[in-house]
Every structure is written in structure tokens, then in C-alpha cells.
UniProtKB/TrEMBL annotation:
<keyword id="KW-0418">Kinase</keyword>
<dbReference type="InterPro" id="IPR011009">
    <property type="entry name" value="Kinase-like_dom_sf"/>
</dbReference>
<dbReference type="GO" id="GO:0016301">
    <property type="term" value="F:kinase activity"/>
</dbReference>
<feature type="domain" description="Aminoglycoside phosphotransferase">
    <location>
        <begin position="46"/>
        <end position="257"/>
    </location>
</feature>
<dbReference type="Pfam" id="PF01636">
    <property type="entry name" value="APH"/>
</dbReference>
<dbReference type="InterPro" id="IPR051678">
    <property type="entry name" value="AGP_Transferase"/>
</dbReference>
<protein>
    <submittedName>
        <fullName>Aminoglycoside phosphotransferase (APT) family kinase protein</fullName>
    </submittedName>
</protein>
<keyword id="KW-0808">Transferase</keyword>
<dbReference type="InterPro" id="IPR002575">
    <property type="entry name" value="Aminoglycoside_PTrfase"/>
</dbReference>
Length: 300
């Protein structure tokens, strides 16, 4: 088992001249807006476009393949969401200069929750956002090749991560209770899943934006698709401190015991991935999540 890999190299060069050409030729009504700040993530490159918009372009084939959720489905399912999201307003076509579809989306202002945490009121708003998102997904809805699968199918990779974290004693004061983590995941994996709903499936703190503690928006929908709503709920249990869990569940409209068992298992699975990241913010979030879930301790 190895650490999460560094950001993969972009498979196509995206510069201001290319973006300007794409906009001019395919979205001429936006040609008068100036390009602004550029942001580059693992899967996409985003350019500000004027004050209210942004251009989102995949940077590698695997991201372009998953881009279908954002360009084909978000405009259908996101029109009435009670939260802001970069739902495409225009979709560009591939051409000789750029090989994949791309989109013009609303710019969602805010600070990542990793830097500006949600307040209890913001946690309630996050719960309401997920309640609105978690509607029945049709059979043709996209599915993430890993995150949409049941926990039991992902158990082998979880065991690999447990073994790696258990061996990691140098340079960290964190200690993982492997048996406790394994029990929680096993109990959650044994609970039957309901019919698939729409789910974000990548609710790390960098993808949840805040403004003075309230929810400003949810971004980066490249992994979204049909899945278990407990996956999103579990990721939020890692993001939020336990003191905010009741407010979050209030926003969800309640949480039954089978869903909580699956969500707690999903949370531990997700937190172990964060704890093995190369990103220090993710590592800290992962260990704090494991502590909140009762399977890790910090020794000073």
C-alpha cells in the first residue's frame, strides 16, 4: 500500500489563448468577459470569466469520461437545489484544439471549509443540501467505478489501508485501533443498501464552500453519480466536528440506524484514505475524523 499519488500530469495544454478561442468560437455571447484567475486541480482547470462565471475544462481523459455527470446531468437535477453549485449554463464541444467537452458555469464564491469551517447553522444547511441532492437516481445515471460500489466490494483496499496506518508509528502521535475500525466497517457493510440516489461522493472540505460559517456552495462534481447516500453522509461526519453532528442530522431530516451504521462505516473508509494522503490538510482531517469516530487516539 502506498501513499496517494501526486497530482497527475495534464494530458493537454490549456492556456489563456486556448480558452479565449473556445469562448469566442463557441460561446460568442461571453466573448466580452475578461479571463481572470486560473485554478488547476487533479481533474480540471478552471478559469474565472468575468465576475459571475467560470470556464471548467477537463485536464485528462479519465476526468473527461466522468465529466458526463456535470454536463449532462447537473442541469437536469440541480435546477431546484437550495444551495449554489457550478451547474453548467453552456457546454462546449470538442474540436481540433481541445479534445473534450467543457463548460461555462456560475462562479461560486466562498472559502473552503478546511480554512473557514461551517458553524452549527452551516452544518444544518449542509444537511438540507444533501437531503435535496439524495433523490432517486435513474438506472442510466452514471456510476463511479469505485465509490458507487458497496462497501463490501471495497473491503480489500480498506484492509490494505488499515495495515499501512497500523505500521505507521514514526513521526506521528496518532494510533489507530485497527480491530475497532474493522468492526465498524464490517457492521456497516452488512447492512443492505437502499435503491441508489444521486450522490456527490467527494465531499472533502476543499469542495464545500463557506461564508462566515454558513454554506456558500458545493463544487467539484466530477465523481458524482448514483450511489449510497450514506457515502456522502459519512464524508460529512469526517468533515464536521462531533459537536455539529446533531445540527447536520437535523438538516438531513433525521437519520435512521441502518443509514447511520452505513454512514459511520463509509466515514471510516473515507478517513483512512485521507490519513494516507500526501496533502497535510487531508491527513489531519483523516486522523481527526478517525478520532471522532472512536477508532483512533492522539498521544502527546
Amino acid at each position: 500500500m502506498t501513499l496517494a499519488t501526486a497530482q497527475p500530469e495534464a494530458e493537454v495544454r490549456v492556456d489563456a489563448a486556448l480558452v479565449t478561442s473556445l469562448i469566442t468560437n463557441q460561446v460568442p455571447e461571453a466573448a466580452g468577459f475578461a479571463l481572470g484567475e486560473r485554478f488547476e486541480g487533479k481533474d480540471a482547470i478552471v478559469w474565472r470569466l468575468g465576475d459571475a462565471w467560470a470556464v471548467r475544462l477537463p485536464r485528462r481523459q479519465v476526468a473527461a469520461d466522468r465529466h458526463v455527470t456535470e454536463v449532462d446531468w447537473l442541469p437536469r437535477i440541480g435546477a431546484s437545489w437550495p444551495f449554489r453549485a457550478p451547474v453548467p449554463v453552456r457546454v462546449g464541444s470538442p474540436n481540433t484544439a481541445f479534445p473534450w467537452r467543457w463548460s461555462v458555469v456560475p462562479w461560486v464564491p466562498g472559502e473552503p471549509a478546511t480554512k473557514a469551517p461551517l458553524s452549527p447553522a452551516g452544518a444544518t444547511q449542509l444537511g438540507r443540501a444533501l437531503a435535496a441532492l439524495h433523490t432517486d437516481a435513474p438506472v442510466q445515471a452514471p456510476r463511479h467505478p469505485r465509490k458507487s460500489k458497496p462497501l463490501a466490494v471495497r473491503a480489500a483496499r480498506f484492509e490494505d489501508r488499515l495495515a499501512t496506518l497500523a505500521r505507521r508509528t514514526d513521526g506521528t502521535a496518532w494510533r489507530l485501533n485497527v480491530n475497532a475500525a474493522r468492526r465498524v466497517l464490517g457492521r456497516g457493510a452488512s447492512v443492505p443498501r437502499p435503491a441508489a440516489t444521486w450522490a456527490h461522493l467527494d465531499l472533502k472540505g476543499q469542495h464545500i464552500l463557506t461564508y462566515h460559517g454558513v454554506l456558500a456552495g458545493i463544487i467539484d462534481w466530477g465523481d458524482a453519480g448514483a450511489g449510497d447516500p450514506a457515502a456522502d453522509i459519512g464524508q460529512c461526519l469526517v468533515l464536521l466536528p462531533p459537536s455539529h453532528w446533531d445540527a447536520f442530522v437535523e438538516g438531513l431530516g433525521g437519520l435512521d440506524m441502518p443509514t447511520f451504521a452505513r454512514a459511520r462505516a463509509e466515514a471510516i473508509d473515507y478517513a483512512t484514505m485521507l490519513a494516507l494522503s500526501r496533502d497535510k490538510t487531508d491527513v489531519a482531517a483523516g486522523w481527526l475524523g478517525l478520532q471522532a469516530l472512536g477508532v483512533a487516539q492522539h498521544h502527546v
